[in-house]
Amino acid sequence: MTAPVALSCGEPSGVGPELAARAWSALRESLPFVLIGDPAHLPPGTPVALIDNLSHAPEAARNALPVLRHDFPGDLTPGKPNPDHAQSVIDVIARGVDLVRSGQACALCTAPIHKKALQDGAGFAHPGHTEYLAALAGVDRVVMMLASPALRIVPTTIHIPLAQVPTALTTDLLRDTLRITHQALIRDFGLPAPRISVAGLNPHAGEGGAMGREEIEIIAPLLEQMRAEGMDLQGPMSADTMFHDRARARYDAAVCMYHDQALIPIKTLDFDRGVNITLGLPFIRTSPDHGTALDIAGQGIARPDSMIEALKMAQTMGVARASAP
Predict the structure, then answer these.
(1) Binding site residue list
(2) Annotation: binding site for a divalent metal cation
(3) What was the pLDDT predicted at 21?
(4) Cα-to-chain-centroid distance, residue 120
(5) What positions does the entry give for substrate binding (predicted)?
(6) pTM of the complete model
């Protein structure tokens, strides 16, 4: 039997607790997962099964949300992060990583955190969730993928100003991004010969150098080199023609050069079901593609679609990695 997915609670004053409850209500024993967190943070009336062994999750999930208890100090007010909670949020993430790396969970799904709350309350030293996970895993470079039933897409550069992208886009960075993506498509998505479409940086993929030379000097030579190594790579492609239905049918994942070039297509095609996946870790990590939504926390109106898809993706990828050669 496949081990369950571990779900870290994230920022408890955000929408994480209510989405965990709604995800359990939708999935129950069809996809058992274990919430790591304080059961007192769940919406009133949520059926809870406290467990101390993740192997009990499938049976417990039939009638209640399985919870691996992690008590938090201080009070909870939806929409208002409590600095006293910060260290517990960090500890829950580390606990989730330990469960996955020990094989007790098949994958880690992380509810959103509030980075400023962690910095203010616990001196959180990492730029974000992903960097903390990479540090726990001892990994130098990871890749962010956004995935939905409509599209899998990877930005090569992520949270930097657009003006810095041409300098940040190096041969080494793009090579690592393509290799990590290629390996993940084989190992975690079960695609033995993945097809990857690679966008250019400039309009019309530079139009032969008339609109920029990054395609000529960086992207095209690297793609040619990696094709010679056996990778199925298309490009550099003009980004404005990569995402219509017929184009998407020709590849398994797209690699883009910067944040908005990658995220605008997937959020336009499938806004509510996008899943954030961290590739390159020694374990599976997924997350819903949204933040803590403090402005609507506790109101019961947050949509659970992305959380449900993140849990489904975590299980699917966890099973694929476990059975990979």
Answers:
(1) 129-130, 159, 204, 259, 267, 276, 285
(2) 159, 204, 259
(3) 97
(4) 24
(5) 129-130, 267, 276, 285
(6) 0.93
